[in-house]
Specification:
The protein has 1 helix and 26 strands. The chain is α/β, with parallel strands linked by helices. The strands form 5 sheets. Strands 1, 2, 3, 5, 6, 8, 10, 12, 14 and 16 form a 10-stranded mixed beta sheet that branches.
């Protein structure tokens, strides 16, 4: 019986020790959470609201100023500014912005709706421009994307109605969906040597866009007569919406998905005999398209090739 009681007591002691360890771990986790929260607390320096991370770097989270010309400094109260957080300057009456080279990320909606903004100098340390970062900055006419930017998020420069041209440095690898949606006065785009992905909707609803050029050293894309092709010029990827006519070169074998979508000024397209396949919705929403001339046999066609192109 003594032995039995000894083992019962021993089992209870082990359970008590396990319970104490759990309580200690819980207290430690709570302490860590409280410490993290103290680092992330809202702070203010002048007109800038910000938070700091565990290593003392600052993220601008808001703005309490009157607008006008804005210079974002490299430090706030000694903390290096590395991030412009989501919604930080959204709908503010800014007229220009110049940001420090310490900033590496421009977050979602960071400057969305800044309708008075006419000029933005993006810091040369920025790697990513987030979703809708400068969307609906209707009067933004000058955008310089510095070397070092890698990704342009969805809608990041959408509805910039005064933007007429844009060039991409070699560091940009990807241009996402609707990145330049409804830039209604955009006429020319120059793609850099490092680009490996362009979403087919990247320049959607840009009715004056006539030319997409590509750096000669780009390994994935090329351009011919302002039209975007794959590198070996066998597939049409994007025809600018401002084109009125298009004669494709011999050697093209495929018209890609949505390649001529919403080319509302396009009246005629001539396809060489080498074309064997037309992708889904390739010539949809071409409201003025009157003729498609096939110089060879009728190619295989996908779904809705001429959808909402009424006169073909």
């Amino acid at each position: 019986m003594k032995v039995m009681r000894f083992f019962q007591w021993g089992a209870g002691s082990a359970s008590l020790r396990a319970h104490n360890r759990m309580c200690h771990a819980g207290a430690l986790s709570l302490a860590l959470l409280l410490a993290a929260a103290s680092h992330a607390q809202a702070l203010q320096s002048g007109d800038f609201l910000y938070s700091t991370n565990a290593v003392g770097e600052a993220s601008i989270t808001g703005y309490a100023g009157a607008g006008g010309d804005l210079v974002i400094p490299p430090t706030l109260n000694g903390a290096s500014v590395v991030d412009i957080a989501k919604d930080a300057f959204c709908w503010k009456p800014l007229t220009s912005v110049r940001m420090a080279g310490s900033i590496t990320n421009i977050g979602q909606n960071a400057f969305i709706g800044c309708a008075s903004l006419t000029n933005a100098v993006i810091g040369n340390g920025v790697k990513k421009i987030g979703v809708d970062a400068f969307g609906s900055c209707y009067n933004l006419s000058c955008v310089v994307i510095p070397e070092g930017v890698v990704t342009l998020g969805e809608g990041c420069f959408a509805a910039l109605h005064r933007l007429t041209s844009i060039s991409f440095p070699s560091s940009v690898l990807s241009i996402e969906k609707n990145a330049f949606y409804s830039c209604t006065n955009l006429t020319g785009v120059a793609l850099g040597s490092g680009l490996t992905n362009v979403n087919c909707y990247a320049f959607y609803c840009c009715p004056r866009l006539e030319t997409i050029s590509v750096h000669a050293d780009n390994p994935v894309f090329c351009s011919d007569n302002g039209v975007l092709f794959n590198k070996d010029r066998t597939e049409v990827l994007i025809c600018p919406e401002g084109k009125t006519g298009c004669v494709l070169p011999e050697g093209v074998t495929r018209i890609g998905l949505l390649a001529f979508k919403r080319c509302e000024k396009l009246a005629s397209v001539t396809l060489p005999a080498s074309v064997t396949n037309i992708g889904d919705y390739a010539l949809c929403n071409c409201s003025l398209l009157k003729e498609v001339i096939f110089q060879g046999n009728l190619p295989a066609a996908g779904t809705g090739v001429f959808g909402s192109s009424p006169d073909v």
